[in-house]
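Repro:
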Amino acid sequence: MEDFEVVIIGAGICGLAMALALHKKGIKSVIMERSESLRNVTGAAIGIRPNGWRALDQLGVAKNLRHTAVRLRRTPWDGETRCLRRKDLIDTLYAALPLGTVKFGCQLESITFGSQSTKHVLRFIDGSSILAKVVIGCDGGKSIIANFLNLKPTKTFPLSAVRGLTNYPNGHSYNHEFARFTKDNNIVGRIPIDDNLVYWFCLQRKDENVWEDPEVIRQSTLELLSNYPQEIRRMIENTEMKSLSVTHMRYRVPWDLFMGTFCRGTVTVAGDAMHIMGPFLGQGGSAGLEDAVVLARTMSQLGSDNGESKSKVMTHGVEEAFNQFVKQRRMRVVRLSLQTYIIGMLWGTSSILKKIMYIMLLILLFPYQHSHTDYDCGYL
């Protein structure tokens, strides 16, 4: 049975960022990814606000990524904001890692404590097993590691989201800004990535169907937006089919984040596995990047030996590092989650009374609604 010091579950944005942050601090890790290849096809784009760029600067990949997307103007928040193709972000993080960091085709089935050691046994659906001294779950909203930590199940907003990318070979005429259109209880957003590529999304009251066929997704969205301007319909008609997806948006209840136990010994979670939230602030991905910087910093300070190589980690030091990580991140993600929760409920209800209540809560709890972009996760 193979034996590893630090194992990360999941090669999404947070998992790759986590491995890169640890690598920069001299801590070797391996990522176990369930897919047979890098998951850089699914998903369309991700907005990165100023706090996310601060984290990317610490990871050393911001300079390259800035060349892939235009800076948005006339945003409601101060500072740098760009919309990245998810593929560009995933590919850039992956390229910065040492060869062999990611092991593909490793879908986790269970995690248990070893019977005669302090290490954990990770079993995969193909029947293989490994030992790991440290486990970091970056395995999304349906995280097996979160289940191991007895975190409460995630819930879904009364909304579903369709996302896609549209390419304009001869260039588009849209300003470099975030545009939003609301009509018939549907919300359509449009964000240029560069002078040719546009990211768009459509939020609607929850549809129990989760379509997988891109053509069905496109046609159902066009039917839903039949009363929208022609330019919006053409944008959807010309969407890159492989970029289309529809999802029911999941979240962790804010009070569960406030009370939850996010580490147990040398096991913890980060990214969506820890704090999956609605996309209404555009902070889910950036929060995962912040997690990577903070956790790698605390592990370097408390969890590794003091020799020339930090490839070996100390169990008691890691436990303290994880406790510090959770302490530093808890209120940050609670506030983000609470704000997205209220906005999601506001957009998802048809009750005028409830809308007024949610608006009043936002005004009371978040008088400066874009303060979340001011956050700085600190130096790596």
